[in-house]
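Team,

Forwarding the record for the chain on the shared tracking sheet. I've put the sequence and predicted structure together so nobody has to dig through attachments.
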Amino acid sequence: MRNSENSKRNLLRQLRDDQEDLRNAGKSFIYFLVGMGLMAGGLFLIFQNTIISTNFTLMNILGYTPPTGIIILPLLLGIGVLFFNEKSKIGWFLAIFGIVSILLELLMGLRMHFKPITLYYGILMFGMTFAGAGLFLKAFIGAKRKRSED
């Protein structure tokens, strides 16, 4: 008799715990959705107010800006060597070095700056982004923390 009462209590306690877990999962999902929405909206506003321009110049090497031909030369030599012998390690090195140096020059030539905005708009942009990130992390880390406390 007493054993059946204990098993009923344990069953009811388990049902209450399961209901609480479902409520917490629903809250975590809402935090996730709201966090993603706020973060996406904030990042959209930041990207809309960022201007990227190019001031393409070759990178300075010890105060000297090399001509374009010198930067492209390793790529061209690497391609030539690879057409002669496709297994040549020197050819692959020259070709990869040439591609990487050209890409680095392009990326280093980019300039980013913000449009002039009001303080309110700046707080709105960055506030939405960081509030969304906080809710997003709360959805994941908060659920794990509660499970570890139990």
